[in-house]
Amino acid sequence: MTPRERLYARLAGKPVDKIPNMNIFMFIVAREAGVSYSEYVQNYRKLVEGNLICAEKYGVDSVGAISDPMRETAAFGARVVFPEDACPYAEVPLITDDFDLSVLNRFDPLDSPRTLDRVKACELLRQKAGNDYPVIGWIEGCLAEAADLRGINELLVDLAENEEYLAELFEIIFAQQKCFARAQIDAGADFIGVGNAVASLVGPALYEKYALAWDRAIVDYIHEQGAGVKLHICGNITRLLELLLQVEPDILDVDWMVDFRRAAQMFKDSRTAVSGNFNPAGAILLGSVEQVQAEIRRCISEGTETTLIAGGCEIPAAAPDENLRAMDRLLYIKQ
Predict the structure, then answer these.
(1) Is the dihedral of CA 83, 121, 67, 310 positive or negative?
(2) Could you read off the pLDDT of 175-185 as tens digits, one per residue?
(3) Angle between helices 142-150 and 165-187 (to 10 degrees)
(4) How much is the pLDDT for 264?
(5) Cα gap 190→195, rounded to integer Å
(6) CA quadruple 180, 236, 248, 283: dihedral positive or negative?
(7) Which residue from 317, 326, 327, 330 lies 20 to 30 Å from 80 (Cα-Cα)?
(8) How far apart, in whole angstroms, are the C-alpha atoms of residue 263 and residue 250?
(9) For 113-130, what is each residue's pLDDT tens digit?
(10) Do the beta carbons of residue 218 and residue 208 sit within 8 Å?
(11) pLDDT digits (tens, 9 = 90+) for 201-225
């Protein structure tokens, strides 16, 4: 089976030759492409080159345009800093305490350099991978993008105090989410990853009040465009699981703090496959090959016929090659 065939078969609960390996690589992609992280996030050709190397070398069953959370933030007008070997960040929050949303650019993803770079990455991944690999584009979730624009601490205070500007802000973010997702789908993305890590910090009450409807709306929109959705909320989402059943992404990333068996059983009869959930630092980075094998066997035993295997979040750049290869070998199903 090709990785693309494998993933779609697994999501449908059909037999596969291998449980799809859905590890998230970013710093490792930059390393394999032989460039700094700064170049990786700004040069789609190097992002594509590194993805294809990693897929072949480590058995990853997808290729993707994930890199950093500052694509849309830059397009909205924030000044973004690009450290040589660290994630980009906004120099100062674009939304300040006066809550003036007129500072936000309403952008065309094909006109903004950083969003266009990601669209071009999806296009080139599709060309290079053909139909062998599923291509995953990426956008920021509503809460995550709000945090990128406002600052995480400031946003959490605003949510708690129910600031009036939030409703309008989420409307603006949603409109841009749709444009950016559609551009990547048109360029060849099979799935859109929605990164919404901030959701794990707010708890179920605030998530239901501010984010649930928006996450469900963007999932519905992407499905209407003919693509799948991979929802990534790293951190402990145990208290959000029941609400996330309503969001209905095709794939839900589950971090290592969550009881994987419980999550797999909760979503067993839904349209959502859970993906996870070993500790990318404790197991893959610091563990022995034997410890890695034990963790992968645990994930497999706790999963169902649709679960996918991956670290709970990004695999660290210093993870030993032998651990990554040992992980992938265990995913093959004995015939």
Answers:
(1) negative
(2) 999 999 999 99
(3) 120
(4) 97
(5) 16
(6) positive
(7) 317
(8) 14
(9) 999 999 999 999 999 999
(10) no
(11) 999 999 999 999 999 999 999 999 9
User: What is the crossing angle of helices 113-129 and 44-58, to 10°?
Assistant: 40
Q: Tens of pLDDT along 28-56?
A: 999 999 999 999 999 999 999 999 999 99
Beta bridge partners of 292: none
Q: Which long-range contacts (CB under 8 A, 24 or more apart) does 123-129 make?
A: 123/187, 123/188, 124/44, 124/45, 124/48, 125/48, 125/51, 125/52, 125/63, 125/64, 125/65, 125/188, 126/187, 126/188, 126/189, 127/188, 128/48, 128/52, 129/52, 129/55, 129/63
For residue 22, the Cα-to-chain-centroid distance in whole angstroms is 10
Class level of CATH domain 3-329: alpha beta
Split at pLDDT 50, 70, 90, the class of 335 is very low
Phi, psi torsion values for 190, nearest 5 degrees:
-85, -35
Residue 212 · residue 143 · CB < 8 Å: no
Specify the 3-state DSSP secondary structure of 308. strand
Tokens for 28, please give them.
């490792």
HSE-up (13 A, CA, CB side) for residue 138: 24
The owner of tokens 């066997």 is 297
Domain boundaries, the chain: 3-329
Q: Write down how long the chain is.
A: 335
Place of tokens 């090659």: 321
Residue 75: burial class (beta carbons within 10 Å; 0-12, 13-18, 19+) = buried
